[in-house]
# Entry
Amino acid sequence: MARTDAVFRNSFNGLIKICNKLKVNDKLDPESTLATKLDVSRTVIRSVLQAFVKLNIIKISGRTKTLIRMPNKNDLLTIQERTISLGQLETDFLNWLLHFDVPPNTILNVTKVSKQFSVAPHTLQEFFSGLSRFGLIERRAKGGWILRGFTKNFAIELSDFRVVLEINAIRHLIKLPENHPIWSQLGELKNKHNDLLRNIDQNFHDFSQLDELYHITINKIVKNRFVEEFQKIISLIFHYHYQWDKTEERSRNEAAIKEHIKTIEALLNKDEILAIDCAKKHLNTSKQTLLSSLITHNLG
Amino acid sequence: MARTDAVFRNSFNGLIKICNKLKVNDKLDPESTLATKLDVSRTVIRSVLQAFVKLNIIKISGRTKTLIRMPNKNDLLTIQERTISLGQLETDFLNWLLHFDVPPNTILNVTKVSKQFSVAPHTLQEFFSGLSRFGLIERRAKGGWILRGFTKNFAIELSDFRVVLEINAIRHLIKLPENHPIWSQLGELKNKHNDLLRNIDQNFHDFSQLDELYHITINKIVKNRFVEEFQKIISLIFHYHYQWDKTEERSRNEAAIKEHIKTIEALLNKDEILAIDCAKKHLNTSKQTLLSSLITHNLG
DNA sequence: TTGAATGTTTTTAATAATAAAATACAATAA
DNA sequence: TTATTGTATTTTATTATTAAAAACATTCAA
# Structure
């Protein structure tokens, strides 16, 4: 079999659902209507209808399709759920890279990796091609792919780029009018930081999540597809490392919270110079954490 | 045939070249050495050697491979040159999009487009997947790809992003030490601008090239893989449009040259505020030109 | 004996072939 | 006419296949 008949099976079960809303002797909609309803081509609908005729669920004469018996559970076709979304693949793959300390210059075997993540080889190829735009992996001359990141240079360049994007976001943010929702959001964010700071001894683990929220709040101000694409990757990598590097976690997080609060206060006071200064300081701390965690894991 | 035997054919001709450096009765290098020399696997070398035996070019006995006749031109295998590089594909494809005013939301037919650019369908798929990271094209739910850009929003977001990157480059540039080559390069660049300005009536067409040089000179200061990836796309699109939009070209170019000169002078004086101001003004002009040329071509 | 070289087998990736689905076009009946 | 169905064509997703790479085993010469 060349293509899977997943679309057929889904449509088959979909038509059963539609029939279940009817009574025996009711007439079915025309092919094109059914096709639109199930968001597939008429070709598929026609195959499904033929299958229904064979199962004596419907009777076709001319242009009238009559339901002659209610379909039941036994009529349903089984569907193997093994297609994960491209977004999920991205998360899973990056998590795998980071979690298992896959070293740089590892040759990635498309066949094996595609099995591991239960996707078709060509889906993975497509995905790899996308990632290669970020310099994380590269095509090899003799075929296949090679993992380039996370090297020290990758981390440095990623951090630097992050600074560029986030400082830009801050410049935009500070110019927003008084009635923009961002200001109340920042107030709330500040409260959350203070709350965590009060219970830092018990809850210092929660900082990872708060850090992500902090950066998202600031960066979402810039509505730009290019920026957003990068933020996805940046956020994933930094967020993962925060969870990962456990050395001096408590004191590290406490310091970071204070940096956040300073930045938020500067933003609320619309002090651009100070806000940028504070943000840069925090981003630099973050960069050092990322670098040191790479060294701890013998990467880079 | 599943895979092409292009590697075999290239290695075959490669080995002929190697043999031509020998004399009759000379011995050939071991398989593994030949494999390294031609940068292919031993498997290929072995097939080529077998082919050479059949053609009575060499004689193999045990581990000695003796040249028994000089190979000639007739022995060479023909190689069909129709593989273009991935970089070339990128340039060709974007040029096609821009040159033929391919409208947004066009459904791209992988089979047809791959023939048009004479690449394998899966190569194109891979390439499309990469481009989709920039939001230029998208995967369709029912299969295939759809062209999203160049819409007005795409152009606006691209321009805005360009500003972020270039202003960042300027901030870095201005901090460079006196002995850095950039300062003499900027001096030269300024002279080129003045030269063109003196002969603007005759040579205003040459500005397109000068504009590209100007932006490259500034942006190359930032050594960052993410920035560089974007600059490739940005440069292609803006540069193309400059060549394209012929309305008021002379006066438009003259104004742009003056903006360039002002920026360069500010940079040479290390006046950061002024340089950023001038650069922003120029980038905004550039953005407006891009937008108006989109409207002229009924895109967006 | 040892290690470089060759022989053999297994694995992997690129492409052609193929079946499913989408689309386009033609015919028909209400 | 126009909505609907029938038929043909195009296109995509996946499988099967072949070339090439890589791994492993063996042999031979120093």
Remarks:
- The longest strand of chain B covers residues 58-61.
